Structures are given as C-alpha cells and as structure tokens.
Give the backbone structure.
Amino acid sequence: MAVLVVTIGLAPGCAPHEPSDQALVSTDVPTPGGTMIVAASTDLRGVNELLSASDSFSQSVLRLQFLQLFQEQPDFDQHPPTFAPELAASWEWSADGTLLTLHLRTDVRWSNGEPVTAADVEWTWQAQIHPDVAWSLADTKENIAAVEAVDEHTVRVTYQKQNVTQLADLNEGVILPRSVWGQLPFAEWRQSSDWFLDHLITNGPFVLRSWDRQQQVVLDRYEGFYKPARPFLDTVVFRIVPQKVNQVGYLLAGDVQFVDHIPAAEAARIASSPTLDVLTYWARQYDFICWNTARPLFEDPEIRRALTLSIDRQALVDALWFGHARVASSPIISTVWAHNSEVRPWPYDPEAARRILERHGWSDADGDGVLDRQGQSFAFELMTNTNSAVRVDAAVMIQEHLRRAGIRMEIRRLEFNTLVESSLAHDFDAMLGGWTIDTSMDLDYAFHTESIDGGYNFGSFSNPAVNELLDLARDQTDPTRKGEILGQVQGLLHEEQPYTFLWEPQRLTGIALGLRDAQSNALDPFFRLEDWWLVPTQ
Amino acid sequence: MQANLAGYTIKRLGAAALLLLLVLSFTFFFIHLAPGDPTYLTQDPRLGPEDRDALRRIYGLDRPLATQYLAWMRAVLLEGDWGTSFVHLRPAVTVVAERVPATLLLTGVALSLQFGLGLILGVVAARRRDSPTDHLLRLGSLVLYSLPIFWMGLMALTLFSHRWSLFPAGHMASVDAATMSPGARLLDLLHHLTLPVLVLVLGGAGVVARFTRNSLLEVLGQDYIRTARAKGLSEVRVIWIHAMKNAATPLVQLLGLSLPFLLSSSLVVEVVFSWPGLGRLTYDSILARDYPVILAATALAGVLVIAGNFLADMVHAAIDPRVRQ
C-alpha cells in the first residue's frame, strides 16, 4: 500500500558530501533532562488519531502520547517486519492462525491514573471501524472479524482468514481511552476536535503540555510512563515553521535541534557545521512517470520501454539529489525484503530506444527534429505538481532527454488537488508523481485492473498475468512464497513499464550533535524517542 | 447636511451588504467547482472509494451544489452557523476568529507605520521638490514598492536573523514565552513583530509617500496657501493644518484601498515569518479544500475590506460636501 506524496524539494546548489548514515548512537551514559526543539512544517491536526491519521506529522506526535499494541521494527529489508511488545506484553496464535490472544501489560496507566485495559482495546477497534468516525485507515481492519476483551488484560482477536499482515493490520492505530472518550457518541466525533483536547488523557512516554496553534506544540515527559527512567528528555517542543528554507535557517542558528526531511541541496551546508550532522536513511518512497496506457501513444509496452531508455535517470539522480537517491527499478523499493534484485533498472540507451521506435514506424520524415508516423508527431504532455521543485526540475531535464530522442514533451504544472483529479479521471498523457509505501507489499493500488475505476491505477494499466499474480499474492500466508510471487510481478512490470521508475530517495535529517541516540528511520522520524537524550550544555 | 450624510450612509451600507453577499456566493461556487475536494487531502490507497463517499456524506458534499449552497446560506443567515472545518473538525468561525488578533496586530501596526512614515516622507519630498532628496525618495519608494514581498521577507530573514541574529526568524513568541513576566512577554512580542512589520511597511510607505507628495504639491500651488503664508503663518502650520486638510482626501481613499493589499501581503509575510494569522490559514485551507474555513475567512476579509472602503468614503463625504450630493 502506498501514499501519493507531494515532495516539496528545493533547488540544488552545492557540492556532494558525506553525511552520517548511522544514527548518532552514543557510548556515553545518557543524561536525563533537557528540551529538544524540533522544526515542523505543519501543525497538529488534533489529538484524536482516528480523525487526523491522514497527516503524518500529527500521527508522529500522537504516537509519542499514545501507545500501540506492538512496535513495528525497522527490519523490513530482509523479511516482513517483526513486532516488539508494547502495550501487548505477549501473544499467541491458534493452530489455524485466525485467532490471536493478546496479554496486555498490567502496569500501563492513563494519565488520569486509570489502568489501560482490554476494554480500551476492544472499544478502540469499534471506533476504528465505525462509519461515523470514517477513519481513513479503517480498511486495514477489514480482515478482523472481532476484538473481544476476555478479562481485564486479555484480548481475543478473530480474523476472517490468515495472511502475512495480520499483526500489522491489528497494530494500525493507537489505543484510545474508552472511559473518557467513550462518553462522546461516534456520530459527534467529526465536529468535536476541541472536546477531545479538553478531555485528553494519554498513556505514552510524553504528555501534551500546551498547543499554541500554528506556533508550537509542547510535550513533557509522562512521569507515570511504564518504562522506568524513560523518557530521558524532559520536554519536546515542535515549532511550526512552514518554509523548509526557514527550518534550515533555524537549525544553522541553533534555534532548533532537529529538522526532518531537509532538502538534499542543503545537506552539505548542514554537515559542514561543527555543531550539526545529517542523518540519512532510505525513505520508503519512489518517484515515477505514469504512462496513460489507454492513450494510443502509450498502449504498446515496447514504446513505453523506449521512453524509459531515452531518459537518463542517473543524470536526474546526480543533478537533483546529490547522491542521496538511486535509480529505481520497481514499485517495491530496494530496501524492502520483497524487492526483486534481479530486476535491474533499464539503462540510458538512446540508441536502443531509437531502434525500437523505428521498428514501430516512428521516424523524422519531415526533418523538423520530432519523430512522426502517418502524419502524427510524437508529442505529449507530462503533468506534475507545481509545489515540488525536484519534480519540476526533473521534468525539465526529461524534456531535454526526450527532445534529443526526437520526442516533444510539454510540461504542465498543476496544483496538487488538480493533479489528483486529472489522475483519477485518467485525463492525462503522462504524470510525474511519487508513492510512499508501507511494508504490506500490496501492489493492487496501482497495477491491478480492478483499481482503474475508483482506485489509483491512474494509467489504466491492465495485464491479466499481473492481475492473476496479485490475486495469488493477496491470499498468501507464507511470506517467502509471497515474496516469490511479487518478484514475478516486478519482472512483468519491468518488461511492461506502465511506470518509468525514476528514483528512490534518501531521507535526510539535520540534527544537533548534542542530541544522542536519535534513531530516526523510515518507519518514524521519532522512533523510540524515549531513548533519545541531550548532552548537557556547560 | 446631517440628513444627506445619513441617507448616503444607509445607501452605502446596503450596497456593502449586497457586495458581501455576492462575494461569498461567488467564492462558494468558485471553490466548490475547483478541482478536488477535502477527501483528496491524502492519496492513501487504503482510503477506498466507499470511504471517500462516507466522508463526503458526513461533510454533506454528496448533495447537489445548489442544495449545498441554499443550506449553507440558510445556516449562515438564520443561525449564524458557518459550518465545521473539514481539517480542524471545529467550528469554522472559531478557527478563523483565533487567527484574527495575530493578523490585526500585524496589519494594524504595519498600516499605522506605513502611513505615518509615508506622510512624513511625502511632505519632505514635496517641500524639497526636484531636490536630490526628492529624487532619492521617489526612486527609493519605487524600488521598494517594486520588490516582491516574498523576496524582501527572505532577505530580511537572511540578514537580520540568520546572519546578525538581531531578530527572531519567525513566530509571535519565544519558546519559553509562557514563563516570562507580562512586560518581558510584551517586549518579546515586539521583538518578533519587528521584521514582518518592517517588510510590510517598506513596500507600502513608498506608495503613501508618493501619493502625499503629489497631492500636497497640487495644494501647495493654490491661492489660499499663498494667503496663509502671506499672513505670516509658520510653515509647519501651513503644511500640516491648511495644506494637509485638502491634500488628505486622496490619502483617505488610499487608506481604504490599502487594506486589501495589506491583507494579501500579510499572507506572504505570515508564511515567511511563521506568523499564525488569517492569511496563512486561508492559504492552507484553500489547498486542503476546507470550504467552511475558506468561506468564513473570505467573509471576514470581505467585511474588513468593505468596512475600510466604507469608512474611507464616509470620511471623504464628511470632509467633501460634493460627495454627499
């Protein structure tokens, strides 16, 4: 599964560098105390995750205040992700894999002193699937038939069928306080954001101290947190700074200690500061050009492949990402366990592209520099979102690469909503966009025929063999077998090229050197924040 | 004269209310017909077509547009209910009202300084017509007026905040403002206010100065000014009492017209300086298709602009009897 992303990059302008690719893990003894200040691009949407899950920043901040049943581990490169105990201390499966029994921790308390119980877990599931709540991730609970509180600290989960994402599906969403939030009928939730703020109780490592809208969100350590002596930090302040360029300015001036998602062009400047470093990790994201296969120009896979061969994607990566990206080859990115490493990116080979196009009757018969066939020029329009400088710059470079191949491409920059509307209506020739993916490895969203109407198969790509394999993968209970099937899908997509896969970017985080044991990763920029600490200033 | 002024006022108020209604209706249809809707906020495949339909039903967007418009108009006019924000899930009026003080503070201070500074510079330029000072002021005001606000904001940040650390790079208050004494908090606010106000004032003061200069030069050539000087009145009295009384008429009009410009400029300044005002809210709401907030903010901006123009017209009418005819 994936999320269409709006990459807001900045124009590049400095030399390559060698930032740290490891978390700043310290061998010193952690020192409790201190305030970490984070620059954030957007404000908190609300304190109820079921109403604000579409916003990743809100989700990150809320997950510092509310616990999940498990903690997904960033080990998805070798196998499906594993889960560490969090609110659920242990669990066991029935023989047929459709019944899960959870044993909750008995020492976790809400900030009002009440214990967190199985009733909270059961009620949270009811809220998650309630139509009036309209939680954006409710579909992740589709396979769960029932969640029942067996006793105060035991929960029984019944699944419709066994599959490889059962724990991940159950774990989606934090556990909410039934005794307090259960007082408000679900039908009133979507008008009552302030009510949840007024009745906020939490159980995570941090509690909300204050929220000055569009200014800052202040979290304090929760003294009643179940892990002894955690968190180390006394306070975390999220300063809302809408402009990325200003966030970098704040970081360089020492006003903040953490800026996530810094532009690649700024990495060298930040890394060269004696008080700062840059953490890097591979984002679970890829950018692509989606070809509208319903249009005659792009209906032939060979033509799509010729287009891919005509685009120098390594040049895009070098010019726009300063080495902080690599050429993509598949919708399952190379840092994920199910990636088929035998699928190598198509090379930049304009000569091979020319031969393919010639074979299909495209030649510059009238000598105007543009290929034509039966009086029709090889010309099309590429649309992308206007607020992504990286994509707009990439479009300009691609335009030049294709011009050299005798293909005329116009660039159409659109506001994000307009881009989405045109994409959903299949009203485009080609679209430059990006997906952020999770670890469920569901590729139906963009490549199954069923996703053409109402789904996200923008390019109307339809291939019976791909459909068959995706159907087969969906019901697999064995991750190894699922990986093999997905490997075959990737092979087919490589040949068919419904997308030209452009790049997989790294995510760069600017960080003050005084901040230790930061463990930002592709799952969460604030992963295990309770273990982070600040070196005391003299 | 009073009856004339009252009649004129009633006529202008009626026209203002009609104009506001038209602006809101236009905005309603325009924003609803723009591509996308609030469910496009996230393109998460886990949000299927049925989920989007459920959200549209909850938001009332599944009804015909004319029905939505009539229901919205009825709620606004009869119940004063501007709806619930799709993004904030709170009453749109509350969301907008929270941002008003920040924008009013920013634009109020900027407008006062803009006109104060512009008047002084305009008078100086008019008094020293065609002198190097006059040329410098005219050229300087033209240059400042021509510079994009966004660029000026970034330059101000780069120089005064990032390079010399003289002023904060943004926000209305320091991280620890809540622990400060009231006096220290006020100083902290003024410290944060300086750069955004400076950026707004620099561009606008030049326009006021040019208006003042031209208007004053017209008046200074008239007979009654020569008479006043012949009577031995001081130059300060001649300029600021006698000449300015007549020269002020176009400036009053300019004041009314400055409000929309200042509101739109403040949008840019609020984004650059992380200022939590109405402009930034409106901008974010448009991107998110948060219709109730867009309409409430439009209404407020419309009221402010119309009120500004209305007051300017009233002052104009009060000082110029010909307008009341």
Notes: Residues 2-34+82-324 of chain B form a domain with the MetI-like fold fold (CATH 1.10.3720.10). Chain B has a mean pLDDT of 85. The radius of gyration of chain B is 24 Å.
